[in-house]
Structures are given as C-alpha cells and as structure tokens.
Specification:
It comes from Gelidibacter algens. Belongs to the bacterial sugar transferase family. This is Exopolysaccharide biosynthesis polyprenyl glycosylphosphotransferase. GO terms for molecular function: phosphotransferase activity, for other substituted phosphate groups. The protein is α/β, with parallel strands linked by helices. The protein is built from 17 helices and nine strands. The protein has three domains: 124 residues, no CATH class; 107 residues, AF0625-like (Rossmann fold), CATH 3.40.50.10700; 194 residues, no CATH class. The strands form three sheets. The chain has a five-stranded parallel sheet with strand order 3-2-1-4-5. α6 links the parallel β1 and β2. α1 runs antiparallel to α5, α2 packs across α4 and α4 packs antiparallel against α5. The chain starts with 9 loop residues before the first helix and ends in a 5-residue tail after the last helix.
Amino acid sequence: MSKKAIHFQVSERKVLLRLLDIVLAIFGLYLLGLLFDYEYLMIRWENSVAILILILYLSVFGTVFEIYDLQKSSQLDVTFRNIVLTVSTTVLFYFLTPVVTPFLPEKRLQIVYFYLTIVASIFLWRIAYVTLIASPRFYKRVILVGEMTYVTSFLEALSQSDPNYKIVGFINCDLSKKTPVKFEGIREFQADELMQVISEEKISEVVVASYNTETITTQIYSDLMLLLERGFTIREYSQVYEEITYRVPIQFVGKDFYKYFPFSRSNQNKLYLFFNRFFDILFSIVGLSVAVLISPVILIGNLLANRGPLFYTQERVGKHGKVFKIIKLRSMIVNAETEGAKWALANDVRITKFGNFLRRSRLDEIPQFINIIKGEMSLIGPRPERPFFVEELSRSIPFYETRHVVKPGLTGWAQVKTRYGASVDDSLTKLQYDLFYIKRRSFFLDLNIMVKTLSTVLYYRGQ
C-alpha cells in the first residue's frame, strides 16, 4: 500500500494560518528595525505588553474580517482585501490604546512602515499558503463506502465547507440501486476494488456512511478489518460531517439517537451558567445604553420611512417550550400578516426601506436586550421561532424540539454560519448548527460567535 500523503485538518489549517500571521508580522517588524532606520515598536522584551496587544488585535479583527475562513483564504483577491481591512482596523485600535502601546513617533513615515510591513508579511505568507498548503498535493483524498442517500448529502455538505477534503470516489452499498449514479469529478467503484483504489488513488481515509450495517458486504467488511490492522484511517461519516461542517447530521437519525442528542457539560455547569447570566445582564445594559444614544436616529427613520408604531411584540417559543413575547423594532408594514404567519423572504414586499436597513444592520433586535434581562433569552443561543412554525417544523424535522433545552439567543451559531431560514430545508440546516452549539457550548464558542456576529453586522448581512 502506498504511503499516505500529508494533509492538514481544518482545525490545523486555521491554527497554522493564525499562528504564522502573528509570527511573520512580528518577524517582519523585527527585520524592519534591524535593517532600516525604524524605532517605533522595536521587537524587544521591554515592549512585550505592546506586542501582546498587537497580537490580540490581529487575532480578533482577523476573525471579524474573516481572514481565517478557509474558503476565502484560497482566493487571493478576497484575502488581500480582508487583510487590508484587518490590519487597518488593528493599527487604528493600536494607536487608540496609548497607555500600553508606544507613543506615536516624531517621524510619521514610520507609521506607514509599521502598517505596510504587517500587511506585506501576512499577505506574502498567504501567497505561500495558497501555493503550497491549499494546493492539490495537500488535499486529503477520501473514498466513501455507504448508501447513496448518505453519499449525496455528504458531498453537498463538504462542497461548502472544506475545499481541501477531496472525495475521489465511492462504493455504493445500496444493493437496490443497480443503475450507476454519477457525480461530477467523482467515480463509482465496485466493492471488490476497495484495496486497489486505495493504493492507486493514494487514498488517505475511508469514510463509512451506512445507516444499515447489513448492506456492508463480507468483502468490504474483510477489507476494512485488514485496513484497520495496518493502521489505516477509517472514520464514521457523522463524525467527519460534524468535524468539517460544524453541524450535527440529524437528518438520518434512526435508533442511534444518543449519537446526535446534544449532551454538553456546560448545560449543567453552574460556573458556566453563572458567568453566562452575568455577561447577559452586563452586555444587555451596555446594549440598551447604546440604544438610547441612537434612538433619535431610529425615531426619525421610523417617522419618515416606516410610518407606524416603532415597536411590536410577537410570541416565540423559549426554553422548555415556554411561550414568551419577543420585543423588536418594526421592520414591516402595519398588518403585514393579515393572511397568516409566513416566513420573510428575500426582497419581501412587506419590509419597508427603513425596515430593511434595521434588519440588515441587526438594529431591529436591540429591544430584545429587555428579554435577556428578564431571563427569557440569552445573548447566545438558538434563535426563537414562532409557535406556528415550531409546530409545523416539528412534524417535518426529527427532534426539532431539542433546540429548546437552552434559552434562545439574540445571536447564535446558526446565525453566523448560514443565511436566514425561509423554508423547511433551511430550518433543518439551522437546526444542525443549533444542535452543534448546544452539544459543544463553551466560553470559547460563545466568544467565537460574538466576534463572528460583528462580521455579520459590519458586512451588513442581516435579513
């Protein structure tokens, strides 16, 4: 059997991008001070606090402006734009924290050197990343063994998540499907070809995607056992799906419900829950204070372009299925649902021009800080749905009510990872993200969601 090619996992590539961004930016500044007449932020021990502040800003704003998004990191034009945004914001905030950072130099040109060195260092590394690590030689080459339903859903999910995870082919274990199934760029192999394909195609991993183990033939089972004995990587599809897409694949849940149910220690961790509530109240007070400051603009906008009440309330389903009334800034025409409840659509005629601004900027959600203070919601969690939609979706999607084991949130994992849901299929995708959050909720994931929410607001992606 041929030697497996080197491949970096999704998490490893993100760490590599972040780590070398920092290392090369600092190294670039070190060379600048070594080779040229440059004195601002010399890389020395006495400047360690200032350097740590710079690293912190780079990491935070790099996440906000999506320079660690693997899909976008493979596109140099998008990457360069995001690097410029990241470094510009980083340098601005760096200069605005003079207590722990060096005073501005007398030679203002040194500020330009400082800025350009960081941009050049990071972008040169990204060129190397695209040329080397994101190139086909580092793809993980995979073969799927399973039934067609799984193969199809797996391919659709991976095409949107990890560009370096290459499905070479599949072995269809569904004996009822006699007609060959074709996917672009992916071949179908016979059961007795597994070992040969692994050798000839330099396969790194076999993913078993089978709901019914009875469809795994004796030949395939024997080959898989032999591969395991040789130390070859064989993984179950739901594990790979969750790792790469950051979603829980519940659409094919059968008797193995325990695999998908969102168990999480944080759901019972009293320390986590205490600080979660503490920050809910703290950020809500800050949010409502900001709302008071911008209220004149919102009042004028509502008066001129919305014509009608500023606020409206609506029933939503909260924790443990308890119904509560959510508070929002009105973004639709008055009496928008005279024909009954229905999802908001793209370019929905019911949304006013000012309402469109409120929705895209997420300002329409500001009054929900009141719901958070009352304990009906949290800053982060699954977005609350209306009782009508919950009842409808519960009939179509398995375990939909599971998302009600935690408080609904002002923002959430689904909101920062996918678009607004306006159909049953969209709601299934959102539920997959919601259950991933509930299953893995932690301080780090909450912080990640908060930073990504800033990206959503800055890029005006609300709907």
